[in-house]
Amino acid sequence: MLLVFPRGRDALALAGGTIARLVDSGSSAAVLTGDADAAAEGGLWAMGARSQAMTGADARAAVSAAFDAQEATAIIVPALGPGQESGGAGAIVAAAVAEASARHLPVYLAVTGRMPAGKRLIAVDVSDQLDAKGDALAALPGASVRERTVSFDDQEPRLLGATEQFVMIGGGHAEVEQPPSTANRIGAAVLGFVVGVIFAGMGTVAHQSTVQLGPLDVPWGLILGLLGITALLVGLRLVLHDRVTVLFTALGMLLTIFVLSLRSTGGSVLIPEGALGLAWTMGPAIIAAIVIAWPRLPARPEPRA
């Protein structure tokens, strides 16, 4: 986790307990600040976070370097007050958000009361870390902590609650999908072939079954068999987006149907001549050809915020 705050004392006040909880759970946290405040830096180190101040005028480059050093998978920035967006604090937060978005990482906003409309509040329980956080804040110049309330010379008193609150404001896009390995594709193809054999075997046994509905003989076995094959092939195509697995599944079906259509040594035939036998022999081949040849649908674009 990387926290980017214009002031180190704000990182300690808004997210000090979360930092300590991350460290207690075995994770790591780093804090990048816009000011060099030795007291705040000491408090953040006491919470278990690696803390450093930005050097140079390029905030985006500093954030990028901090991301690489921490190998962060998410970022926390503070909610800015009125008038701060256009100043140095706003530039630091904007650089952090831009870098996180470029890396497709989630961005969390540390809030104290009011939160952006339409956002879901995430509350982190820091009751076990509250005493340590209070001690670190009390050591800051111009700060005092009394009865779970911290006061700074330049800010309104703030209650040290048992939770710290965040909302996700951006990022978190899915990473680029990696193609399946050769071993996975071979395994899926073999499994698909076996499933195709099973489906074709069950369909062959049932395809001659009919039911009398008035003057009509409804071939319910053939209908269910063709529907099952269609559902299987279409489902594999939609879920796996891989024609190879669908192809091997279809080969398992067609090979099984061909073998079962041959006359056995005892003279019995599982797929006799006639309309039902012809439909069961040709239907799966036509369905497989259509499903395999059907063009891949483009991914649906995400709605813009």
Give the termini separation: 25 Å
SSE sequence, one letter per element: EHEHEHEHEEHEEEEHEEHHH
Strand content: 15-25%
Spatial ordering of strands, largest sheet: 3-2-1-4-5-10-6
For the largest beta-sheet, the strand count, sense and barrel status come to: 7 strands, mixed
- Portion of residues within helices: 40-55%
Shape call: rod-shaped
Q: Which residues sit in consecutive blocks of at least 5 with pLDDT less than 50?
A: 173-177, 298-305
Task: Work out the number of β strands.
Answer: 12
Query: Averaging pLDDT over every residue, what do you get?
Result: 82
Structural class: alpha/beta
Rg over alpha carbons: 32 Å
Can you count the helices?
A: 9
Quick description:
With 305 residues, the chain is an alpha/beta fold.
Can you put this structure into words, describing what you see?
The protein is an alpha/beta fold. Helices cover 48% and strands 16% of the residues. It has helices at residues 8-24, 38-47, 59-70, 88-102, 130-138, 182-206, 220-240, 243-261, 275-293, and strands at residues 2-5, 30-33, 50-53, 75-78, 107-111, 121-125, 143-146, 149-152, 158-159, 163-170, 211-213, 216-218. A 7-stranded mixed beta sheet has the order 3-2-1-4-5-10-6, sandwiched between helices. The protein has a 3-stranded antiparallel beta sheet with strand order 7-8-9, covered by helices on one side. It has a two-stranded antiparallel ribbon with strand order 11-12. A hairpin with a 5-residue loop joins strand 8 (149-152) and strand 9 (158-159). Helix 1 packs antiparallel against helix 5 (130-138) and helix 2 (38-47) runs antiparallel to helix 5. It is rod-shaped and about 100 Å long. It starts with a strand and ends in a 12-residue tail after the last helix. The model is unreliable at 173-177 and 298-305 (pLDDT under 50).
